[in-house]
Amino acid sequence: MQLALTPDGKWDIATSDLVSAASAAGFDSVGISAERVDAAAIEAYAATGVRCHELLAFIVGDDESATMANAEQLADRAKTIGADWVLTVFTDKAPAERIRRCARIFDDAGAGIAVEYTPLGAIPTISDGMEYVLAAGKTARAGLMIDSWHFCFSSNTWEDLSAVPLDDIAYVQFADALEPEYPDRMIRESLHRRALPGEGVLELNRFAATLLDRGWDGTVSVEVLSAQLRDLPVDELTGRMYTTTATYWS
User: Fold this and answer.
1) CA 20 to 30 Å from 22, out of 5, 101, 208, 243?
2) What superkingdom heads the lineage (predicted)?
């Protein structure tokens, strides 16, 4: 099992400091936002030997020309930093052929397309996400990114999770959640009120077991988007994220 870290876009932490702290905490990989890919980031990853498992994030909307231009730009960034996957988020549904074209662009850059489904977006269920994975996977590397927060607040069942073919899972994002304070504003809950694994209300033991018991052995990337934790020193933050995540996957 590879433990990774997905950064919070609101962290005021230099990439070099984050990668160094994550490596010291025990993480194998660290994700990066496309706009942070620069010479300093490349040097930081090389210096620590940490992989980049995900480039954040490819946004698919209804504007075809903008989508394709964005795909070309992110493919270049993915190749530059050596990202395994380009995380792909849908604000609107898109024709399968367009997704295949984007997947081929990423594939040429050495990265796969990681399809994120979320109850807060245009593809709210596992089956919706798998439609794009299967379409893209005909010509390029594609997988479903399964987020514990999104799964637990979606309409999907444990049977749905257990039915996802292991080879079709790109990687997992992992976090807990506080009891919703604003149940009618779940985007706010998702962006600001996640919790360290084991410090919230989600059924994370069952989530992890549903994958582990079937023999899944991939990348788990902890993603804790939390207003409460954003001001912690980077060493303390990454250390707590690693320790709480490893408990479920070791």
Assistant:
1) 208
2) Bacteria
